[in-house]
Design brief:
It is built from four helices and no strands. The chain has 81 residues and is an all-alpha fold. The protein has one domain. The longest helix has 17 residues.
Length: 81
């Protein structure tokens, strides 16, 4: 999970915007990026809601992903490895 979030922050915010020249710039801008990620960026895995919407009970809460165990159980029931 953390790797995914780190990748999104780098790929969608830091690299395209070329906003940070050094670690001090990253530390200064990271709180704003996290705020955007949690409050404005819709997430496909939670029905195009924001994490804050889901956390506060506003958004639609149907889980749109399967866990590793669920995938393995589904494969076993279909006779796959």
């Amino acid at each position: 999970m953390a790797e995914r979030i780190n990748g999104i922050i780098k790929d969608e915010y830091l690299y395209p915007l070329k906003c940070c020249k050094n670690l001090a710039d990253v530390k200064m801008k990271l709180p704003r990026i996290i705020e955007l990620y949690n409050n404005q960026r819709p997430h496909m895995s939670i029905g195009m809601n924001t994490p804050n919407d889901i956390h506060s009970g506003i958004g639609y809460k149907k889980r749109l992903w399967k866990t590793y165990t669920e995938i393995q159980n589904q494969k076993r029931s279909q006779g796959q490895k």
